[in-house]
Specification:
The protein is an alpha+beta fold. The chain has 1 helix and 6 strands; from the N terminus they run ββββββα. The longest helix has 17 residues.
Length: 105
């Protein structure tokens, strides 16, 4: 599992968006690093419901969630802008840049 790309910025309490690539090649988009009242945390992809509340669309057990959080905080803190390219990609090939369509709100 690896961080596919990370986009740092300031969107209110949201400090970064990132995608996650599994070892099987599945890419999950829409993770975010959020500045909470108890420090930063990783928010999983979510969707706004009819009641105006957001609910997660991707779930993980506690151990996996901790591993994802640890990887994301390391990537965010180390200045990594994007993760390694997929094995099939050429070394000079970069993933497309983030657009407004990548921001889930």
């Amino acid at each position: 599992m690896q961080i596919e790309r990370i986009n740092k910025g300031e969107w209110g309490k949201v400090k970064a968006f990132f995608d996650l690539r599994t070892d099987e090649g599945l890419v999950v988009k829409g993770f975010k690093i959020v500045e909470g009242s108890n420090g930063p945390f990783v928010g999983f992809p979510s969707k706004k419901g009819g009641d105006g509340e957001y609910s997660d669309t991707v779930y993980a057990e506690a151990e996996l969630k901790q591993a994802i959080t640890r990887m994301a905080m390391e990537a965010y803190g180390s200045g990594i802008v994007q993760g390694a390219a997929s094995p099939a990609a050429a070394p000079s090939e970069e993933p497309p840049p983030f657009t407004d369509d990548d921001i889930p709100f």
